[in-house]
């Protein structure tokens, strides 16, 4: 049964507000079940919510699936407010954990706008103690509040806001938690023992000694905070080769942040064979149907125009899904009447290479499922791929694993430290091949958006095990090979809607999709919305945009005008439309297309447009 507090008369002249607070506290002591709704706080009360007005971005808050951002309009007070966008599989929950006193009464309140918006608390430690309030529809700012008592052993509770699955974005501002304050003690001591591990071309591993009473650590790069972690080690990625850096670390708890540690210098390496393999500053990459024919017809190697800088031979396929034994069978005469002989094919490859072009074997494709479940399959992969490269004198390898080739096992949640055999064995195999052929080896990858950018929302099987285990499954491979990777050209086609860094879904058919998808690669993103687990940005010279060459080549074809809009936005910050990128990247490497054959069928429209946009580069 609800209890309704009697109406409080306004204080008479000369009646001190402090006395009201004392009386309110006394009432709570005598009647613990009574809810006090007066706006007059008790004398020892304080607002314990951190950054409740979102004036310092999302500092102190964690939003699921990267759903939250701060905006300058609409706001209730100050200059910023929270905007969080639910999706079909995420309710845009933004939360923070606060230290509280046991067996004490607190009031959580805040202002919200939108439909189906919730404000609540968990972890109170009392039967039926967790509480929330919500509004079905708030066209303007509406105050929500809930009062609760902490349990006898409760020291921390979690505050949250969220919307509802698939609904529009909601806003929140001026969130407060009023109740007995807690002496936070002293900030932790300054961390000691900061040191580097084995430094790579684009990454520096760091470790330091643990600090008593620290709950988190922050890493500073050149005086700028770049990462916050709970452990005593991390890897700073997305760096440039052969570049000097300086790092410091701090420790923090509820009382604050320590001073920074002594600085540790680090110089990134040349990559031990990494880099671009000798690609031109602007490269056009295309797949040549070398082992099959379709409606586009067969194109001889010697007939591939000079526009193409990287020619991917499609495809090398396994003898069975799990064998790891890759074979490259050229298109038979019965299927491709105009196919050249092996001798002519090899001679044409040498001629292309003499002209500065790169010719690679592409493994996989739509029908070539490859699962390296065992070390035996891994070793067979290395041996058989090496045999193909050596026989045809190729410049490198392209990984075009699709379908069910890559997926993550249950419990494999950290892309930086994968445990799934098909992932670990593929990484080992590619590193072995890269080491075998050295500096000039060209390594490219052509994953689908589902395996890369979808990782912003979902990763593997998810917290409850109900997700598609292929979500984001390429991320650990890309990350482990980022020092060796020449080019990543994600297939921005045959894709469903994908959420971008603006927390909006983007669909194929225009420049916007290519801009949003490429921006994610060049900016980096939290994996599955976890801001403590960020996939670092790739260097712009490692990235090309994957597009279909014609309407026949795949879903998602765009006109030359839309191709140029995407390039303008990403390299010049012009023609960006409604999407705003997180940077401008003149060094973006170029474009990839499926396929050379389909471009020939379309009178070379795709490659001619590339030549016009990047003349004589």
Largest sheet: 9 strands, antiparallel
Q: Low-confidence segments, ≥5 residues, pLDDT <50? A: 1-43
By CATH, the superfamily of the largest domain comes out as Glycosidases
CA(first)-CA(last) distance:
78 Å
In the CATH scheme, what's the topology name of the largest domain? TIM Barrel
Q: What is the alpha-carbon Rg in Å?
A: 29 Å
> What count of domains describes the coordinates?
3
Level-1 CATH class name of the largest domain: Alpha Beta
- CATH architecture assignment name of the largest domain: Alpha-Beta Barrel
Would you write up a description of this structure?
The chain has 3 domains: 45-180, Galactose-binding domain-like (Jelly Rolls), CATH 2.60.120.260; 192-268, Immunoglobulins (Immunoglobulin-like), CATH 2.60.40.10; 283-613, Glycosidases (TIM Barrel), CATH 3.20.20.80. Helices cover 18% and strands 28% of the residues. It contains 9 helices and 30 strands. Strands 1, 2, 3, 4, 5, 6, 7, 8 and 9 form a 9-stranded antiparallel sheet that branches. Strands 18, 19, 20, 21, 22, 23, 24, 29 and 30 form a 9-stranded mixed sheet that branches. Strands 12, 13, 15, 16 and 17 form a 5-stranded antiparallel sheet that branches. Helix 3 (375-392) packs parallel to helix 4 (421-437) and helix 6 runs parallel beside helix 7. Its EC number is 3.2.1.14.
């Amino acid at each position: 049964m609800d209890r309704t507090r009697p109406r409080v008369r306004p204080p008479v002249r000369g009646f001190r507000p402090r006395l009201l607070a004392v009386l309110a506290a006394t009432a709570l002591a005598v009647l613990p079940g009574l809810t006090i709704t007066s706006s007059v706080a008790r004398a020892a009360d304080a607002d314990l919510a951190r950054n409740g007005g979102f004036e310092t971005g999302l500092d102190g808050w964690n939003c699921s699936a990267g759903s939250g951002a701060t905006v300058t309009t609409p706001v209730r007070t100050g200059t910023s407010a929270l905007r969080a966008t639910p999706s079909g599989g995420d309710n845009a929950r933004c939360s923070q954990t606060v230290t509280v006193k046991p067996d004490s009464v607190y009031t959580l309140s805040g202002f919200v706008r939108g439909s189906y918006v919730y404000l609540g608390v968990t972890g109170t430690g009392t039967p039926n103690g967790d509480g929330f309030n919500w509004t079905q529809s708030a066209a303007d700012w509406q105050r929500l509040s809930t009062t609760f008592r902490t349990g006898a052993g409760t020291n921390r509770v979690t505050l949250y806001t969220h919307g509802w699955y698939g609904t529009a974005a909601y806003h929140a501002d001026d969130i407060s938690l009023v109740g007995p304050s807690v002496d936070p003690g002293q900030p932790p001591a300054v961390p000691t023992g900061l040191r580097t591990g084995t430094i790579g071309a684009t990454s520096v591993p760091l470790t330091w000694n643990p600090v008593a009473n620290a709950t988190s650590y922050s890493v500073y790069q050149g005086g700028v905070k770049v990462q916050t972690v709970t452990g005593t080690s991390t890897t700073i990625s997305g760096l440039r080769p052969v570049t000097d850096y300086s790092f410091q670390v701090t420790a923090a708890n509820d009382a604050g942040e320590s001073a920074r540690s002594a600085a540790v210098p680090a110089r990134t390496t040349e990559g031990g064979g990494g880099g671009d393999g000798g690609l031109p500053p602007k490269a056009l990459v295309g797949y040549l149907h070398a082992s099959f024919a379709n409606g586009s017809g067969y194109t001889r190697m010697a007939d591939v125009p000079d526009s193409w800088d990287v020619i991917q031979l499609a495809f090398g396929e396994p003898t069975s899904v799990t064998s790891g034994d890759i074979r490259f069978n050229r298109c038979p005469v019965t299927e491709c009447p105009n196919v050249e002989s092996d001798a002519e094919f090899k001679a044409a490859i040498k001629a292309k290479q003499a002209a500065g072009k790169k010719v690679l074997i592409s493994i996989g494709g739509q029908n070539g499922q490859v699962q390296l479940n065992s070390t035996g399959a891994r070793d067979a992969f290395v041996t058989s791929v090496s045999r193909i490269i050596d026989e045809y004198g190729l410049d490198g390898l392209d990984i075009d694993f699709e379908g069910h080739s890559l997926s993550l096992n249950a419990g494999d949640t950290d892309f930086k430290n994968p445990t799934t055999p098909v992932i670990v064995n593929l990484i080992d195999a590619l590193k072995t091949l890269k080491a075998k052929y050295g500096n000039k080896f060209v390594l490219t990858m052509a994953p689908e958006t589902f395996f890369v950018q979808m990782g912003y929302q979902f990763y593997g099987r998810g917290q409850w095990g109900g997700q598609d285990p292929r979500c984001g499954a390429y991320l650990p491979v890309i990350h482990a090979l980022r020092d060796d990777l020449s080019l990543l050209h994600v297939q921005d086609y045959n894709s469903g809607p994908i959420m971008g860094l603006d927390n909006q879904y983007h669909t194929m058919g225009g420049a916007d999709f290519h801009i949003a998808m490429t921006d994610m690669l060049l900016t980096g993103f939290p994996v599955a919305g976890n801001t403590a687990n960020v996939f670092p940005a790739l260097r712009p010279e490692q990235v090309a945009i994957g597009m279909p060459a014609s309407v026949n080549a795949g879903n998602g074809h765009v006109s030359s005008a839309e191709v140029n809009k995407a390039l303008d936005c990403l390299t010049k910050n012009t023609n960006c439309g409604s999407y705003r990128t997180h940077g401008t990247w003149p060094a973006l490497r170029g474009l990839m297309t499926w396929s050379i054959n389909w471009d020939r069928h379309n009178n070379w429209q795709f490659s001619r447009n590339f030549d016009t946009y990047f003349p004589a580069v």
